[in-house]
Design a protein that fits this description.
Length: 486
């Protein structure tokens, strides 16, 4: 068995690369080259049968991750599969299972079995659940947990191997210390045992396990800043240097790598952060959480962070980990997941348009044409969240006759500027010429991105098959999701 990067380096275009090229509308050889160079990853564990392969890299459409998983107190397999369904329904390109309670193995296996998108995990969470206190975690336990999760088909794992013992004093003057869950657990372990980070110490053995199953590293940023004041500090960049070295080691072992990034970063420092990561990590895909561009808006952190995420993707970040409105405040429910994913798909798409990604703008053009034609049904259909668009429209103008109306309730019939403009053009005879030029059905723009890159077509039998793209999918609004901080 060869990993995707090993095959790519030998000049082989794998089936996964062919599929990715089809989805991204690029040549398979381009995909192969990007994977061979370590500038893109195809997280595809050989044991994940149901996977529809996708690619993460700055030369491809920007991707969005959603976190699911249970808490210590509740949730079983069925509930977790509903969460997976919700995340995929709203457009998640990958899903991280951050479960910390219940039957972790059964939940993980069920997620992998049913998911068409790559599944990521943070193995330190499971290791913590198997010991009385953090300092009791052993190297053997960590390796066992990682190997078991690899066997179960997990496609990528967050491994916080870059937080070193010598980095810890660098966080002393911080306003919010270590905010990554994985980072804080490892800091406690290192301090209690007076030993180096076990993931760092055993990194080569982890590489061997990952190479066997083609698990992709998501090198965790355990020292990411938790507030604007701590952004771009010595601790953060010291860890980044280590992540750069580890990226090289993993590539030597034929293992794919992406690198995680901050956090909370003022807008003016984001591009610089992305460029630095790209340089230090030799172009390995950057996977960022936000970043939040201000600390003052709890309750709206899907917005504060998607502003930063747009800027990060514009500068070259390849995947964005969504943040929901509940960030810093509580467990998100399904409605929060919907809000978070919508915000992040907007961020990803806006960056793709700004970066001139082939075909990205066509989606905007198709919707704009439908809007100017007063083709309301097509406008809803093309909307990023069709159900939301139609329900807002129908709140005031619910009847079928309004689906052909040349106005909506925002300006009203008399003041509808598009209607006034069209009437004026009609009077000039210009509309006829425009109408001749505009044929929505035949426009190449109308079909590109239908479904948009990132919205997964789901086929076959199983939980994720039923009607999830038909608009009649029911979401349990009381369902709770884990916080995004790993
Ligand atoms: S009424 Fe205003 S918002 Fe509504 S379609 Fe016309 S111009 Fe657009």
């Amino acid at each position: 068995m060869q990993t995707q990067i090993q095959a790519a380096r030998q000049g082989t275009v794998t089936e996964a690369m062919e599929r990715v090229a089809e989805r991204e509308q690029v040549e398979p050889e381009f995909v192969r080259q990007q994977v061979a160079d370590g500038q893109a990853v195809i997280p595809a564990n050989v044991e994940h049968d149901r996977l529809d392969p996708m690619i993460i890299g700055r030369e491809f459409a920007t991707k969005v991750n959603a976190n699911i998983g249970n808490s210590e107190t509740e949730s079983g397999v069925t509930e977790e599969l509903e969460k997976l369904h919700t995340a995929v329904h709203y457009g998640a390109d990958t899903v991280m299972d951050l479960s910390t309670g219940g039957d972790l193995d059964r939940i993980r296996e069920a997620n992998v079995e049913h998911s068409p998108v790559p599944i990521g995990t943070v193995p330190i969470y499971e290791a913590v659940k198997q010991v009385e206190s953090v300092e009791d975690i052993t190297h053997e336990l960590l390796l066992d947990v990682i190997e078991k999760q690899a066997e179960q088909g997990v496609d990528y794992m967050t491994i916080h191997a870059g937080v070193l013992l010598e980095h810890l004093p660098l966080t002393d003057g911080r306003k919010t210390g270590i905010v990554s869950r994985g980072g804080s657990i490892l800091a406690q372990w290192m301090e209690e045992n007076a030993m180096q980070n076990p993931f760092y110490a055993k990194f080569e053995e982890i590489c061997e396990v990952f190479a066997e199953y083609d698990v992709t590293f998501s090198l965790g940023d355990g020292l990411r800043p938790g507030c604007l004041a701590d952004a771009s500090d010595e601790a953060q960049f010291a860890e980044l240097e280590t992540l750069g070295e580890l990226t090289e080691v993993a590539h030597e072992y034929g293992v794919q790598v992406m690198v995680e990034g901050p956090g909370h970063v003022p807008m003016d420092q984001i591009a610089e952060n992305v460029e630095r990561q790209q340089e230090v990590c030799n172009g390995a895909p950057f996977y960022v959480l936000g970043p939040l561009v201000t600390d003052v808006a709890p309750g709206y952190d899907h917005i504060t962070s998607c502003i930063g995420a747009t800027e990060a993707a514009r500068a070259g970040a390849a995947m964005l980990c969504y943040v929901t409105p509940k960030e810093h405040l509580g467990l998100p429910d399904a409605e929060d997941v919907r809000e978070g994913l919508a915000a992040y798909r907007i961020a990803a798409h806006a960056a793709d348009v700004a970066n001139g990604r082939e075909g990205a703008r066509d989606w905007d053009d198709a919707l704009s044409e439908a809007r100017y034609e007063f083709d309301w049904r097509r406008q809803f259909d093309l909307a990023l969240d069709p159900d939301r668009a139609q329900s807002y429209h129908d709140q005031t103008l619910p009847g079928d006759n309004y689906k052909e109306a040349r106005f909506c309730s925002m300006c009203g019939a008399e003041f509808c500027s598009m209607r006034i403009d069209q009437d004026a053009r009609d009077a000039d005879g210009k509309m006829e010429a425009i109408a001749d030029e505009t044929d929505l059905e035949r426009s190449p723009a109308a079909e590109v991105n239908r479904p948009p890159v990132g919205t997964h077509e789901v086929e076959g039998d199983g939980l994720l098959d039923d009607a999830d793209l038909d608009g009649d999918f029911e979401v349990d609004l009381d369902r709770e999701y884990p916080a995004t901080d790993d």
